[in-house]
Amino acid sequence: MHSLYKNTILITDKAKESNLLGSLLIFILLVVSGNPEGRQSKYLVFIFAIFITFIWYKNINYAFLKKMLFVIITLMLFFLMQSHLLGYTSWLGNINLVFKIFLAGLVFWGNGKNIIFRFYNTIFYISFLSLILMSLDLIGIIKILPYTYTEDDRYYYFFYQTRPDFMRNSGMFWEPGVFSNFLILAITLILPYYKIINKFKLLVILIALISTFSTSGYILLFFILLYKIFKVNITSIFVSSIFVLFFLFLYTSTPFLGEKINEQSDIALSADGEMNYTRLGQMLFDLHYIEKHPFLGNGMHIKTRYADHPMFQDENYEVGHGNGFSQFVVSFGIVFVFFYFVIIARNVNMLYQKDFRFTAFFILIIVLSLQNEPMMTYSFYWGFLFLGKS
């Protein structure tokens, strides 16, 4: 049995209260990072940051403060340089981001090495509840339940949402793609411990992933399967070939894979670099701003982020930007993004005891999952800067 798993069992057996609290705080972090109600509240991040600081204060040690202070000072210096380059920066927006990072850092650092298993379990319960509610939706009786929130013909039951003619599982998040991102992260983080994890929980998470009908989620799952089975021998090459053929079959025969990818590629390429709703199209649109300020980026505020496109600078205008990776590079620049991934790679490599193959694969998963939605706008992905610490 892997030593990390042994340590986790010892910790959770001795302190079930701490295990429950740690999982609850992960759940809170997910709420402010993707739940429609949680992400729309301007003050919820601040409230949860104060709340978690109060109940998690024993984990705020010198090492955490040192790490957090380094991140905050680096960010503030970075924002000062951006302000000088661009002539403007939103300090309120910058402070809001600092609070998001502080919240994510507290949750990740406080959970320490247990974050892997607690996150996995939390995602399992979210998946399980979403599938129950989706089943009620399929048989047409979900409307008898009280909903927590509604907008644009969407009814939210916190762990699930219904829409007219839209039978995809978003879980408790605003889009199926966001849910698939968290499902993929849970599977990826637990991957080295596949032999010892609860397989029923994994099955539920996989069913939830299938129910999202997320193109990017399916592609990332394909990469996970290849990573798991690929070794340099005849058997693995044969099995890998079967998976490749199966994926090609899905690509050509399912509308949400091949047809959708081909359609979006055509739209993106015909847009000639102008904004459109496709992931590829948004990345091509962002190339203009990446070339404009490649090293320090264009900032997060719409005034500088879309400096050459005044029509997008109206705060009431919904841009609908979906390519989170290109948006991250545009806003923060190549240098900052590079160091973000260097720190994550270092943390993952230490947590998984210098498994360089898994570290490289995890970074790939993060990069590809960011192509899906603008996850860096919210807290959770910033937590990887504190992964495995305690």
Number of strands: 3
User: Which of globular, elongated, flat, extended, rod-shaped describes the shape?
Assistant: globular
Number of helices: 16
Question: Strand percentage, roughly?
Answer: under 5%
How does the SSE layout of this entry go?
Layout: H1 3-14, H2 16-34, H3 36-40, H4 44-55, H5 62-86, H6 91-111, H7 115-138, E1 149-151, E2 154-156, E3 161-162, H8 176-190, H9 199-212, H10 215-229, H11 234-253, H12 255-270, H13 279-292, H14 302-305, H15 324-351, H16 356-370
Antiparallel strand pairs: 1-2, 2-3
Helix pairs in contact: 1-2, 2-4, 2-6, 2-7, 4-6, 5-6, 7-8, 7-9, 8-9, 8-10, 8-16, 10-11, 10-16, 11-12, 12-13, 13-15, 15-16
Describe this protein's structure.
This protein is mostly helical. It contains 16 helices and three strands. A three-stranded antiparallel beta sheet has the order 1-2-3, with no helix packed on it. Strand 1 and strand 2 form a beta hairpin. Helix 10 runs antiparallel to helix 16 and helix 12 packs parallel to helix 13.
Provide a compact summary of the structure.
By secondary structure, this protein is mainly alpha-helical. The protein has helices at residues 3-14, 16-34, 36-40, 44-55, 62-86, 91-111, 115-138, 176-190, 199-212, 215-229, 234-253, 255-270, 279-292, 302-305, 324-351, 356-370; strands at 149-151, 154-156, 161-162.
